[in-house]
Write a structure and sequence with these properties.
This protein has helices at 39-46, 95-99, 138-141, 144-154, 175-186, 200-209, 227-231, 246-255, 276-280, 295-304, 306-309; strands spanning 2-8, 11-16, 27-36, 57-58, 62-71, 82-85, 88-89, 108-109, 121-125, 129-132, 168-171, 193-196, 236-241, 256-264, 284-287, 313-317, 334-338. It has eleven helices and 17 strands. Helix 4 crosses helix 5 and helix 4 (144-154) packs across helix 10 (295-304). The N and C termini lie close together (10 Å). The radius of gyration is 20 Å and the shape is globular. It is an alpha/beta fold. The protein has two domains: 2-145 and 291-338, Quinone Oxidoreductase, Chain A, domain 1 (Alpha-Beta Complex); 157-287, NAD(P)-binding Rossmann-like Domain (Rossmann fold). Pfam families: ADH_N, ADH_zinc_N. GO terms for molecular function: oxidoreductase activity. InterPro entries: ADH-like_C, ADH-like_N, GroES-like_sf, NAD(P)-bd_dom_sf, Zn_alcohol_dh.
Length: 340
């Protein structure tokens, strides 16, 4: 079999491997069909990832595949099932796992701290697998993790969505930001949403693919000289900061209404920002990470909205030109690599 190994930043090597034969108890052998690239993959490729990571490794944590062997008498998973899986290797035993497995104190990240799925076959513990209906296409199934991260973020403020007059802003027109937009619109039937994207070329491309309302605000600074100055730019009750840009988080603090909610999904670098609006406006800031717990729900959503979500996939590469997938920037939302 073949695999794609990230040796060091900007260096991907195609590797010849033996297909695993010995399947441990409680595990399955998966034929990996497609991996989707996310922001973490790009940062790993360029050496910019700010969290724990290692080189060399097989990258990729958004994937779809088929069960070819299984060694688990207690699982309902069977040979031939189409599956995807968690991006995190959680233990299931620690105190944090009982509350939210995305916060496991022993966590490892597939394709970031341990080997991921950029190989044609992989052994996966069955507790990390999710089965999709057979009619699900592999390319759409490989979007599950991305939408699960988005849904996990939305659930931080789900109880607030019953009031349809609350104005929501999503900062960042990447895959996560658009996943949040599509989930709010088609799953939660919420339409009072705007998207902020500062890249005009990307903004123009998104407008041609999706029916999106864009925010008109530009980057600005305020001072704390008066409460009227602090409040005059406030337009939103809920803001999802999905760009990972620290300046965007600063803008979120300025744009959020008093008593509003900001949900952050990015990994921010260490930079100085003005945090006083959090206190002055009594802002609630929620961090969110991962999508474990949401996969089954998301798979149903993807199937029901397959024509809309398929628009997310803008580029597909193969084993021989996979490195090109990391270099394309224009008109990109979600890039996939087919391993066959």
């Amino acid at each position: 079999m073949k695999g794609l190994k990230l040796i060091s930043p900007k260096v991907i090597k195609k590797i010849d491997l033996d297909i695993p034969q010995n399947i441990p108890k409680g595990h399955a052998l998966i034929k990996i069909n497609i991996i989707s690239l996310c922001g973490s993959d790009y940062k790993l490729f360029y050496g910019d990832y700010s969290g724990p990571c290692r080189y060399p490794l097989y990258f990729g944590h958004e994937w779809s595949g088929e069960v070819v062997k299984i060694n688990d008498d207690t699982s309902n998973i069977k040979i031939g099932d189409k599956v995807t899986g968690d991006c995190s290797k959680w233990c299931g035993n620690c105190c944090l796992c009982k509350e939210d497995k995305n916060l496991c104190s022993n966590i490892e990240k597939f394709g970031i701290t341990i080997d991921g799925y950029s190989r044609q076959y992989a052994i996966v513990e069955t507790k990390y697998l999710y089965v999709a209906p057979m009619e699900t296409s592999f390319d759409i199934l490989a979007l599950t993790e991305c939408f699960s991260v988005a849904l996990h973020a939305i659930k931080k403020i789900e109880s607030m969505l019953y009031k349809k007059d609350r104005c929501i802003l999503i900062i960042g027109g990447g895959a996560i930001g658009l996943s949040i937009y599509l989930l709010l619109k088609f799953k939660f039937n919420y339409y009072n949403i705007k998207l902020m994207e500062i890249d005009d070329c990307k903004k123009d491309f998104i407008s041609k693919v999706f029916d999106v309302n864009f925010a008109s605000e530009k980057s600005f600074e305020i001072n704390n000289s008066s409460y009227s100055e602090i409040s005059k730019h406030c337009n939103y009750d809920i803001i999802f900061e999905a760009s990972g840009n620290v300046e965007a988080f600063q803008q979120a603090l300025y744009l959020i209404n008093p008593n509003g909610y900001i949900i952050t999904l990015g990994m921010y670098p260490n930079k100085n920002i003005t945090l006083s609006p959090i206190t002055l406006k009594s802002i609630k800031v929620h961090g969110t990470i991962g999508g474990t717990h949401e996969f089954d729900e998301v798979i149903k959503f993807l199937i029901s909205n397959k024509y809309e979500v398929k628009k997310m996939i803008t580029h597909t590469y193969g084993l021989d030109d996979a490195s090109m997938g990391f270099q394309v920037k224009d008109k990109r939302i979600k890039t996939q690599i087919s391993l066959w």
